[in-house]
Amino acid sequence: MFLVAFSGLDIRVSRLFFDHGFFMASQGWTKLLHVSVPWFVFASMACVAAVYGFNRLWGRHQWGIDGKKVVYLLLVLALGAGFLVNGMLKNEFGRARPRDILEFGGTAHFTPAYVISTECSRNCSFSSGDAAGAFFALAFLVAVSRKRVVTTVAVGYGVLVSAARIASGAHFLSDNIVSFFIMLLVADALYYRMFLFDPGPAVITLAPAPALAIVPVPAVIIGTSEKPSASR
What we know:
The protein is built from eight helices and no strands. By secondary structure, the protein is mainly α.
C-alpha cells in the first residue's frame, strides 16, 4: 500500500543518482556487486553441499546441515528467486527500468509498482532479480544461524546489492523492496512448513453409543380390596 500510494518515491530516489545519465553505472563498486550475486549463490550452495557431504561421511552435525536443510535452501532459491521473481514478475509486469524511461532520457513510460504494463517485453524491472539472489542469504539466516553477525551480513549484502542496482539505473527502490519481502516470506513459510509444522497425532472420534429407550412401567399398587356390598 505504501509503494502504491507514494509511487513517486521511486523517481525521487533514482534521481539522486542521475546527472546526464546514471554516472555510477560504470563505477567499480556497482559492477562488482552486480557480478557478485551469481557467484554468491553458486559458492554458498557449493559450501552447503560440501558441509553436507562432510557430515554424512564423518557422522558430524556441522552447522546443522542435513539433507532436509539442503532441500530447503534449494526450494527457497528455486521458488523465490527463480519462479516468483525471475519467472513470473519480471516477465509478466512489463515495467521499464529507470534508465529506459522518459524522466531519465529514455523512451518508455514510468509505471508504479504492481501495475502491469507493456513498456518492457522481457527481463524487466519489477522486481529485482539481483536483489532476490542477494537476499537468498536470508534463507541461511533462518536455517543455519540467527546470530547478530550473520543477520548483519545477510541483510547488509542484500542492501548493498540493491543500492548498486538503484545507483546504476537498473532498478527502482520498490523493485528491491518487493524482492526482499518475497525472499523473506518464502524462506520463513518454507521453514515453518518443513521444520516447525506439526499436525499432531490423528484423533479418532468414536460415534456415540445409541441411547437405550427407557419405557416407563406403570407402578402396580397391591393392596386389599373390599367387595361392594349388595344393595338392599
